[in-house]
Amino acid sequence: MSSLEERDVGVAAAPGSSSAGLGVGAVGAAAEAVAAAMQEDVGIRRGEGPEADPDEPPKKRVKIPEGESGKLEERLYSVLCCTVCLDLPKASVYQCTNGHLMCAGCFIHLLADSRLKEEQATCPNCRCEISKNLCCRNLAVEKAVSELPTECTFCLKQFPRSSLERHQKEECQDRVTQCKYKRIGCPWQGPFHELPAHESECSHPTKTGTELMGILGEMDQSHRRDMQLYNSIFSLLCYEKIGFTEVQFRPYRTDDFITRLYYETPRFTVLNQTWVLKARVNDFERNPNLSCKRTLSFQLILKSKVNSTLECSFLLLKGPYDDVRIKPVIYHHSFSNDANETDYVPLPISDSVECNKLLAAKNINLRLFIFQVQK
Question: pTM higher than 0.70 for the full model?
Answer without folding.
Answer: no
